[in-house]
Specification:
Blueprint lengths: L2 H7 L10 H9 L1 H7 L4 H9 L7 E2 L4 E2 L1 H12 L3 H9 L4 H14 L8 H10 L2
Antiparallel strand pairs: 1-2
Helix pairs in contact: 4-5, 5-7, 6-7
């Protein structure tokens, strides 16, 4: 299925790439409620710059990391491909770059012109 068609008809359809239990834990987290709720593509960059580590769920009660919260937010707001590529090109903040790469890998299965690995390899070769 074409993700762009799917997302045009079902709001937030791409967020279902994150398992339901994980999504529910993210929605219940303080970071999500306090810092992610009203983010747009432009303001998400500021939060991404603040990342100190990457990961999914941590600790015994399996709390979501800020990284996985931002991944889910990106799946919800579905930023333009150019924005994701700019995340990947970012040389100053490695976690912003990783956030872009992860987002690209999650949503690029519907891209028709080039695969995620082609784009990432091309960007890395340019360094």
């Amino acid at each position: 299925p074409d993700a762009s068609l799917l997302s045009a008809h079902i709001p937030y359809a791409l967020q279902n790439l994150v398992e339901k239990i994980t999504r529910n834990k993210i929605y219940a987290s303080v970071y999500w409620k306090k810092d992610c709720f009203g983010l747009s593509a432009e303001t998400l960059v500021d939060k991404a710059v603040e990342l100190k580590y990457i990961g999914g769920m941590i600790g015994e009660p399996q709390k979501p990391t800020e990284f996985i919260c931002l991944i889910l937010k990106m799946l919800q707001i579905q930023p333009d491909k150019e924005i994701i590529i700019e995340f990947i090109k970012n040389d100053d903040y490695k976690y912003v770059r990783l956030l872009g790469k992860q987002q690209w890998r999650l949503v690029s299965w519907h891209a028709q012109e080039r695969s995620a690995e082609d784009v990432i390899t091309g960007l890395l070769d340019a360094l």
